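Moderator note: this is an archived Q&A kept for reference. The question asked for a predicted structure of one protein chain; the sequence and the answer are reproduced below.
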Amino acid sequence: MTLQNFVAGLAMTVLIAGAAAQSAQSAGLGAPPGQIVQPPPPPPCPPVPGTAGIASISDGTAVTAEDIQQFNVWWMSPDTCAGALALTQSGFSKRHPDWDTAARMTAMTRMYELTQDLRYLYHLRQLIEVILFYRDDHYPGNSDPTCKRCEPTPVDDFRGGIVAGWGHVQFGNLSGIDEDTTPALTYPIATFARIVAEDPSLQAEYGSDAIRYANAAMETMWSLMPQMNIQSVGSHFEAYLVRPDSYRTKLTQSVCQGDETCDNYHDFAGAPLEYNGNAAFMMMLIELWRALDSPFYRSTVFQTAQVEYTRTLIPLLVSRFQRFFAGHLQTRTDDPNGVPRFYWNYNDGIPHSINPEGTPHGSLDMQYIDELRRNLDRLNAVLVPLGEPIALDASYLWQFANTFLWKIAGGAWEFGLSVFAKDVTGKNPDPKYNKECAGWVNLAVADGDVYSICHEASLRVVNGGQPYLTIGAHSALLMNKQFSSPVSEPPPHDPHCGKFAC
């Protein structure tokens, strides 16, 4: 299918998506419910010499052996890996999907691409096997009486079927997936597939896993595609996920019982999903697209019409969501120096509760912006001939960086004292937001001061400990250490690209 033919048939996207979601398993894209084998107890991560003390990252742009050693001591000892796997097993077996698992998995992708050390890829595979075993369409059930809606392969009450995602009881006894958590968990699964699919040296050992993971990510994509809205705005198209229409009928007063979040979900039925939820989905799609577009996947897997359609569709969805997002960014000059920066809301297109984007959710937005930046040329090679280039350039990165420097970080950072604000307006600073550098530090590519501030905030010692250091921030600091110099210096080859060109 050519891109031109796809554009001509764009109006069929949502209709096809609904049918494809139902046919994914019959097309052989993944194992049917109940046929996923529980992974055996994994061997531990390799021993790491040394004990965890106060973590530090060396000066300069080069990542040193000591920097990697300190990361491993903190996060990769056999006991730490085993503990992380045990927590994941316990939580997901009770249908409690969590962001900490997604953050650890994403950190493994960063560290592998930075070092090419297989310990990270191997541990990522361990985590993937556990969470895929408990994905709703594979879920084996749990007889624990405290486990709500833990029947085998539970139905998503809002989407009317078994969904390739991780759900839980949301309101009353109604079960459904979250459109942000599920893509955030699927993103490192798709990234594993992409890493292996683009590196022949990994394919003998990990190739079959990469194919299986790409297909699993594709199942998740099509499970959510019925919520994709595509609209014409002037001479362009926009695309974004919306909340299920069923919220309007399912979330009744008797179900919500005065719960404000539940009432809001009812009111927001069919309205755009928040930016960070859409962003997580687009990150997942970009990595999935690269895996599907690889010679390895093309030569290994029978190329069904759905696979071809998916490969064709993804770049257009990414460009059209970015156009939607960019169209709602507001340039403001309200800092003391009048430097242009971006303001944006947590959500737009909803009837009420419009709030400024918060620092935690904004961190995920910036992780998406970095994913888009690193794949910009590859995506535009497909999109520019269609007249749909992605709305992103250096000026966007600079204004996002100014938002961080002047609002999140307050404009006059005092080492050891300053703390991050609650949201992009710069209000309500609180030390708990100092943990949110995993996404924001990617803006160091536009201004090296972002790295300096995140380095200090994340590694700050308080009462003999480092309460703001997370595995996400630690790995992202190492990945962005190359940008710690002034931006006038040309950066080295981006390690996100591994041994091969982006």
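Archived answer notes: Residues 1-34, 487-493, 495-502 have pLDDT under 50 and may be disordered.
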